[in-house]
Specification:
heterodimer, A: alpha/beta, six-stranded parallel sheet, 10 strands, 57% helix, B: 10 helices, globular
Chain lengths: 425, 281
Amino acid sequence: MTLAVVGLSHQTSAVEVRERLHFSEESVRGALLQLRKHLGAAGVVILSTCNRVELYAHRTENPETLCDEIRAFLSEYHSIPEADLTQALYEHTGRNAVAHLFRVASSLDSLVVGEGQILGQVHDAFIAAQASQSTDKVIQALFQRAFSVAKDVRTHTSIGAGKVSIASVAVDLAASIFMDLADKCVMVIGSGKMGETTLKSLMARGVGEILLVNRSIEKAETLAETVHGEALALDDLSTQLHRADIIITSTAAKDFVLRPEHFHTALRERSHQPVFVIDIAVPRDVDPAVAAIDDVYLYDVDALQEVANENLEARRKEVDASMCIVETGTERFEAWRQSLLAEPTIVSMAEELNAIRERELEKTLGSLPDLSPEQREEVTYLTKRIVNTILQRPMSQIKREVGQHNDPHTVLGLVKRLFGLKEMP
Amino acid sequence: MIIAAFITLYAGTALLAGTALCTGRYLQTAEQRVLGWAHRLLIAGALCLVLAFGARWIEWGLVPLTTLTDSLLLFALLSAVIMAFIARGPVKALLCFYVPPLALIAVINAVVAHHYFLAAPKVLRGMLLSAHVGLAFLAYAFFFVASATSVAYLFQVHSLKHRRTAGLFRKLPPLERLDRTLFLLIRFGYVFFGVTLILGAIWSRIDADLLGAHWWLSAKIIRAIVMFMFYAAAYHMRQLGWLRGQRLAYFVFLGFSLLMASYVVLGIAGLSNYNFWGSAS
């Protein structure tokens, strides 16, 4: 009984290699069926994202060749010589494979540690495998446990706290200044790509009003149409600045577009309600002296990056605590998986006791011919209840002992000798 | 009953001190559940102080508002209730700003309680005077929580300006919400303080002979009127949008600091009695 994972990730391969081994959403179903057939495995899952391609498999026979066969499948499926993949591929079996999946699902193995997307991708991969009936009891339990471990990591550590991209940091900061973005006005000055991304992030949080300022009013109008905003010419900036709660600047201007005097006037007009200024332009659009004005919070690209790096660092500090949760989850899963070894013995033990019960019951019923059919049924039911009650405790104890024991076969051997059970094939 | 009053006072104080320790622990570990305990301890502490106040009332059959310990007891329990109400749900981290100064006041009060609790409170003549004193402490409680909120606001501003956006910063409410909370606290404090002054003025007409001819010239009254005007200015300027955010936070913090300083100065100078310029009968 072996669990194995073979794959590659951003840590072991360049994007050129990863894209060659990528499984598209449409091709996954077919690939799962082929892989299962190829391995003769009980359960398989294919996890394919932009940062990793991993094939998980579980089977009971020929555990020692499982990884080689998965590697051969990858090579064959994508028509890439195996030798070309050797450097990029990693493989884990048994306990290591379990711990690897738990790390991946908990985003400890991600390019951006703590990002939340990977859990959804692992979930989708599992759902796809289930839909194509490519999972078995062990694979199902493995992935369910992975989701639970990932949830524990998110709940008990701050691994997912603090955003790490410029746009999301800006949105996070806006949310720490304003209660509700729905009644806030965003002014976008210029038409830089980064400014657009930040605006989109703010729009996703339901920002109320959008003002688009551009040197060319025609360009502003075109942009305004796409985001249902209001177009303004750059000349109107001074008179309209007070309307903006959040200002995003990303122009290509060589000189400062916004200076302290602009804000002094605007703040008076808006009764000193706070203004969040995101200056993403290089060279900068906003005079750094603006940062010293009360109720104005100015963040340029470096400042946003600094916050993003700080958040990333904070996440990295949570890795050790997260690894403890992964370790505990792995231990528990492995104990459960090992306890499965006891199943054939338990079945055999139950069969043995039931055979004794039937034999003895037959003798007893033979010596009591006057019993009515109802009474015979009652006696039969009684014997079944006795046997089941007797079996209950040993069954759970055997599972527990086998799950926790370093050498489960010793425990199983003892049980077999105790009950005179035949060796299972 | 005096034993019950002591036990509940010390228990309430211990719970408030425990709450302060929890907030300290939270600042070290950032464990959210610690804040949950802090909130529960704060509520339990407030309940104990209510019981202590009740025990004191039952023991003497008088509204216990005229000794230092009784007044601070009422102030602490009212502040604790307001704090527990505001710092509930996802903004429990506000307790880090609220509870330590409250716990300090409660502990100092518990230390001196032995002396004051053994003496009977002075008689407050009538419900009018009881309401006057009670409402004054309710207003002070609002001003106290407002000043703690202003510190939280200034902390957030400082963090944003200096780009220290990790840790406690993330757990506190947005600036806009803190500003609104501040405004709300000033509004309640201002209204209660206004009613306090009106009740006091009515009482002074009724008991004019007790207070003397120049009662309105006492340092206590002048301080109350100055404080009222100060908070009235803060409230109306905020209402009109002339004073908000950072400036309002500084203003409110300054206001409560002045209030505290005036208490200490007048207490040391012995000017807390009415009619110190006139001749009381």
